[in-house]
Amino acid sequence: MAAISLLSQFNPLANRTIDTDMDIAIVGAGFSGLGMAIQLKEAGVENFTLIERGDEVGGTWRDNHYPGAACDVASHLYSFSFEQNPNWSRAFGQQPEIFDYIKRVAAKYDLYRHIRFNTAIREARFDEDAGIWHATTDGGEEITARVMISAVGALSDPAYPKIEGLEHFRGKLMHTAQWDDDYDLTGKRVAVIGSGASAIQVVPEIQKQAGQMTVFQRTPSWIMPKPDRPIPEKEQSEYRESPFKLSKRRYRIYWMSELFAPFIISDRPFFKKRAAQIAKSHIRKQVADPALRETVTPDYAIGCKRILISNDWYPAIQADNAELIADGPARITEHSIITKDGREIEVDAIVCATGFKVPSRAAPFPVKGLGGNDLNAAWADGAEAYKGVTVSGFPNLFFLMGPNTGPSHTSVLAFTEMQMEYIAKAIGHMARHDLKWMTVKKSVQDRFNRGIQKRMKHTSWTSGCNSWYLTDSGKNTTLYPGFNWEYRMRLWLFRPSEYESAPMRRGAESSRAAA
Ligand code: NAP
């Protein structure tokens, strides 16, 4: 079974045909939503609609088009396993190429005709008697569906920093996730707030253009060398000619990532020490000044925040036109930033590389399930789901990239593809048994999450730093505390006995009554 499960990562469309005409609404047309739609199509289901608030597919790869935007997962793994791409031009894909890939896949599987663009869901409520979700759009329209799948992404709403005076700034204000391509940075005095994953990509590009660049680093990141390289045309053509070779490369990257997972996830000193050695050596090689070395060396355990990869961040912050300030701004005026030690730095533009509002702490939109129960109330102590996919009391509702399914060491798609398969199996079960609704038992969900949180105590993420992975009370509701292969095995089987359900036909016995 284990071997089959591991191999299945390259065959996620292996579900059998689903014979159903039930309406399915998928919220979001990024990687997850599109992958789910393909999964359904391949199972013979056509009666689905993707509801997308933007005007194009692509989600995070449509929105994050700041200069330097790229993926820190190797290209050959950061793509659908059933739609591998031999034509990646770099070992680590850049935003335009990834965005093109997503659009190409959407067109190839004829998904555009299923998508309602420029439509955001404002709220959704479940009608228990009819077994139907009623979702209201921002235009006030009502959309009904038997099954609703949330594919809204883990990080889609930009978070601006709470800094006194920011609203009064009269220069150009941009967030990395809301980049204005028409704004010319050439010769400008630019401030960048943040030193996380987005900052380390945008800063080297800004430094090349700006007259003066000031980077506000509140907390340094652990940064590893980036093993990036262009993929020559000859190698690409080998992948085109040999799908085996292409899959072999994907497998290799996948299993190397799994091999290194403990160095990122585990809080054991053995792993931490070795990982930190590599990152410190990177600093020593790229930063000559001892004072700056100290400033950019984190004082928290490596892996606690996301480990970043870059070869050009340290050179960029040491360039003649650059300055790194080892703190956040104290306040902002109409034309300048005031540092914590009282210095005034005049700037033309402020770039906020300050991250996102984290939806796994809250419902993607107000959701009312069985008995009118509110999802946000159910998640008051932190979001929880069964296998990250489904929440007790919220029937026929599924999540992609739900709570505790974020990857720390591998491609998010390695997680979401398995979720798509699991959801298709659940829908197939509903169809075969003519179920009005189905929801996971609370006891099953609780047992799963007790296990997750128990393991969480031994991870780097709970070792004492502040990160978007954690809720205010310090609970990690975002990441999966283990190997991807192990998560895949957990999702391999859909077990109806873990669910309670209500039949469509009158008079048929409800498993809820029996449960
Ligand atoms: P982030 O990791 O949350 O980093 C936000 C940065 O802004 C941090 O350095 C934070 O400092 C700083 N910040 C926030 N408020 C501030 C304030 N008031 N004053 C000063 N600094 C402030 O956000 P991100 O860089 O956008 O990355 C978020 C996630 O997106 C990543 O973890 C990753 O999962 C994903 N991402 C992935 C890629 C990729 O290559 N695949 C690229 C970009 C992003 P503190 O650390 O002190 O809070």
UniProtKB/TrEMBL annotation:
Under the heading Gene3D superfamilies, the entry gives: FAD/NAD(P)-binding domain (3.50.50.60)
Instruction: Cite the entry's keywords alphabetically.
Output: FAD, Flavoprotein, Oxidoreductase
Q: Which Pfam families match?
A: FMO-like
Give a GO molecular function annotation for the protein: N,N-dimethylaniline monooxygenase activity
Question: What is the name of this protein?
Answer: FAD dependent oxidoreductase
